[in-house]
Structures are given as structure tokens and as C-alpha cells.
Amino acid sequence: MRLLLVEDDKDLSRQMKAILEDGGYAVDTSFDGEDGHFLGETESYDAIILDLGLPVIDGLSVLRKWRNHGVETPVLVLTARDEWSEKVAGLDAGADDYVTKPFKVEEVLARVRALIRRAAGKASPELSCGTVTLNTSTSRVTVGGSPVKLTAQEYKLLSYMMHHPEKVISRTELTEHIYDQDFDRDSNTIEVFVTRIRKKLGVNILKTIRGMGYQLVEPEDEQVNEE
């Protein structure tokens, strides 16, 4: 899952980026409204964290531009302003949630998880497919109750698939959502990750749709079927 963090305080941005990455997200950062607006409109994100007090273009204007241009990505607003009118203005401009500074970064992480779940039509932090369960709050994956250890990239890929069950997802889309902007992306590695995930889970919930990509499906049996 990939996030955009638009925050002009570079120390806070670095701190938030580190915690968000530890939480299993690929994170792009921007330090002003103009650059943030461009990234939010041209790149694929699962959620955006947006400070309102930005240089060049303020966050409220950025948010309005995104919504006017059809960007539907969930947006969590960060603001040092504690007046209720500012919160209302942010929500009316298209924000999905807000946090007032100072805040605990862990709270931001929890709110981001909730935004992504809601956007995918999920209420519970536990996502399941057959005997496979992924807990978005703890980043824990189990099969039949037994824990399975995945690498960071494997977890991101499985998490994205489990947030979008039954949808056929291309290698390109998966690449866009598990790597940040600065990573040397190679969609060919997606097949490697899928093969590893299948072996580690012991059940095949990632079905290959030839020429199109992959689809999360209920396993027909408990045996891995590599394609």
C-alpha cells in the first residue's frame, strides 16, 4: 500500500515517513502544496496525508483542486489550527478525516489504516480469504491461526490484494502500490513475490489471470497451485 505525505516540516516528515514505512507502507513525501498537488494528481496512492499549512499553495486549496479534478484518494488532513471552522472547511473541501497538531504519529497510522479499509469497503482490521487472515493493525498474517512470516514487499503485495478481493490486478498496478516513487520499479519482480507468497501460505489464494495479472480468490483446496 502506497501513501503520499505532504508536510513542510521536514523533521516531522522524516519521523512520520519512518513510522509509516515500519507500518508496512511505501511512502512518497512532498514539502509544498504545488509539488504535493502534482503528485496527488498524477501518481497512484491508497491514501494521502495532507498538512493544511503548506507553502506555495495551502493545503485546503490543494485538496479542493484534487476533488475538482476527480481525485478520489482518501485524504487525512493534518492541521495546527484548532478552530472548529477550519475542521469543517477541510471536511467540506473533501477531506475524509483530520488530526490536529500536536498528535501521536501512531494515531495518524491508525486513522490511515481505517481510511484505506473504508475505501475498500472493509470495516474490520482483519481481512480474510479462506484460512488466510491479515491483520492490518498488527501486520500479522496467519494461515489457520498459525503465523506466517513475510518480507516487507510480500506483505505489501498481499495486503493490497486482500483489500481488493475478486478484482483482477495487473503487475503494473501492484508495482505502483508497493514501491515508493524513488524505487527502481521492476514489474517482473511481482511474479517472484507471488510465487514466494504462495509457498509461504501453503494455499493458493492468488490466482494468475494470464495476460492480465492476479486475482484474490477463495482457495479450491489446501494445496499450492503454482502457475
Structure description:
It contains eight helices and twelve strands. The protein is of the alpha/beta class. The chain folds into two domains: 2-119, Rossmann fold; 126-216, Arc Repressor Mutant, subunit A (Orthogonal Bundle), CATH 1.10.10. It has a five-stranded parallel beta sheet with strand order 2-1-3-4-5, with helices on both faces. A four-stranded antiparallel beta sheet has the order 6-7-8-9, with helices on one face. It has a three-stranded antiparallel beta sheet with strand order 10-12-11. A hairpin with a 2-residue loop joins strand 8 and strand 9. Helix 2 runs parallel beside helix 3 and helix 6 crosses helix 8. The longest helix is centred in the middle third of the chain and has 15 residues, at 105-119. The model is unreliable at 221-227 (pLDDT under 50).
Using only CA atoms, what is the Rg?
18 Å
Largest sheet: 5 strands, parallel
State the helix count: 8
Low-confidence stretches: 221-227
Which terms summarize this structure?
single chain; 227 residues; alpha/beta; Rossmann fold; Arc Repressor Mutant, subunit A; 5-stranded parallel β-sheet; 4-stranded antiparallel β-sheet; 8 helices; 12 strands; 22% strand; elongated; disordered C terminus
